Amino acid sequence: MNFLRRRLSDSSFVANLPNGYMTDLQRPDSSTSSPASPAMERRHPQPLAASFSSPGSSLFSSFSSAMRQTSQAPLGLMEPPGPSTPVVQRPRILLVIDDAHTDWAKYFHGKKVNGEIEIRVEQAEFSELNLAAYVTGGCMVDMQVVRNGTKVVRSFKPDFILVRQHAYSMALGEDYRSLVIGLQYGGLPAVNSLYSVYNFCSKPWVFSQLIKIFHSLGPEKFPLVEQTFFPNHKPMLTAPHFPVVVKLGHAHAGMGKIKVENHHDYQDITSMVAMAKTYATTEAFIDSKYDIRIQKIGSNYKAYMRTSISGNWKANTGSAMLEQVAMTERYRLWVDSCSEMFGGLDVCAVKAVHSKDGRDYIIEVMDSSMPLIGEHVEEDKQLMADLVVSRMSQLPMPGGTVPSPLRPWAPQTKPAKSPGQAQLGPPLGQPQPRPPTQGGPRQAQSPQPPRSGSPSQQRLSPQGQQPLSPSSGSPQQQRSPGSPQLSRTSGGSSPNQVKPGTTLTSQPRPPLQGRSTSQQGEESKKPATPHPHLNKSQSLTNSLSTSDASQRGTPSEDEAKAETIRNLRKSFASLFSD
């Protein structure tokens, strides 16, 4: 570009140009005739030659104008970009699976993810949802709800889910486990996790987790009620003692539970189990004084005591008196132990029975679909909303990744190497190359074309394990054609030394561990032909072969080898710099 401008500013060059090739750089009345800067104006004064207009000058003028625009970009003469428009994050969609009795949108009103991203709440029951899940496209949810007499149909891709409804109930004939599978298929996070929601679709399956905790903590710390499981009616011959409570299948709110007083009633219930074609459990009836419920929402704990007033053996049926009690360490241990099942439960509750003889029995654990009770229902809903926002804030942003706390990312920097310095071995503090296994092939260096009086040699690393590759940048491989080659002509103290005059071929190398002392001695006794070009470099190669012969020893010997390697590098660099 500058060369072209200097040529155009030369009057003798312009005078010799054919007619019609004058550029608009020389036109004083042109809008683009001003130079890029005052400094360029002083460097390139306008010539006094007259301008000519012809059809052929337009092409050259366009070319010159384009080059001027290119030259202005590095000089910073381009117009600065305008103020960047702030990027508006799309709102996060929260799907709350619950009935219409609770309006969850008001509990999330004004809340934002990370304090800046809005939350849009979509609420529906399991019966009002349908979906399609994809491997890379996530999960598309179709919702058909009736709000104030108006049918609302909407499709969206939720970012988070709050499950407040049972996915499976035999008593009501509701089975929405396929929706839970689809949400899990789409990889959606939830409170509680969809993995735990699916596992809570069978009460005996959940009770098996309580048995594990019972065996881990013992009956004193975790008093679990005695229970027997039957996969069908056939093994249900009799009960060890009466009265007993028979629970059929998977149901909630006291449904499917029967109190059996004697053996005859037990036989009648067995026939009902056969008709239901499901599993059943039996547990000893406990004459309770009151029920205990310990709930955990995030890090908030509450304990309640419920006493039946109507006299029904089911405390959750009929009239009952509910009051909040103190949270003891015993209760905290129960709920904390149960909150660890199925990968962790953010919301859970433990139900127990306190008998009239003063003993406690744990009978059940509930997940995030548990009903809220007591005077602090509004507070508990607000705690759930805060917990969901906290979990949503911990998720990675779209298009970004969150580094693992166990293995933080750190850039790996490569130490710079001087141009004339060859790396003879791995640096200090790094693991040494692994020796070849017995019988395994060894990579050999491709032989260089031999010169008269200086046959090609193979140079090993100081550890005597791997030959240096041609791309290692060693001085012998980067020398000029007229420089002499170096060869080791010591007395043969190294078992890995290659004798002069031999031709290298790519063939397997026997392992060092398999060589016997007698074989090494025979090789050391073979005469070596002196090389006419060796002078001061012979002592260096002798030192290198001596370090090859010595096997790995004490740490002091390794440090001495490392020091020898550093000295050899400096010697080679000074030798070939001449």
Automatic annotation (TrEMBL):
The compartments listed are: Synapse
Q: Biological process GO terms, please?
A: neurotransmitter secretion
Cellular component, GO annotation:
synaptic vesicle membrane
Q: Where is the Synapsin pre-ATP-grasp domain?
A: 89-190
Which regions are flagged for Pro residues bias? 428-438
Q: What is its main location?
A: other
Keyword Membrane applies? no
So which domain of life are we looking at? Eukaryota
Q: Which family does it belong to?
A: Belongs to the synapsin family.
The answer to whether UniProt assigns keyword Phosphoprotein to this entry is yes
The protein's name is Synapsin-3
Q: Which PANTHER family match?
A: SYNAPSIN (PTHR10841), SYNAPSIN-3 (PTHR10841:SF27)
- List compositional bias (Polar residues) regions by residue number: 489-507, 535-554
Gene3D superfamilies per the UniProt record, alphabetical: 3.40.50.20, ATP-grasp fold, A domain (3.30.1490.20), ATP-grasp fold, B domain (3.30.470.20)
Its gene is: SYN3
Q: Which InterPro entries does UniProt cross-reference here?
A: ATP_grasp_subdomain_1 (IPR013815), PreATP-grasp_dom_sf (IPR016185), Synapsin (IPR001359), Synapsin_ATP-bd_dom (IPR020898), Synapsin_CS (IPR019735), Synapsin_P_site (IPR019736), Synapsin_pre-ATP-grasp_dom (IPR020897)
Region annotated Disordered sits at 19-55, 395-565
One term of GO molecular function: ATP binding
Q: What keywords are assigned to this protein?
A: Phosphoprotein, Synapse
Q: Can you give the residue ranges of the Synapsin ATP-binding domain?
A: 192-394
User: Biased composition, Low complexity: where in the chain?
Assistant: 30-39, 453-488
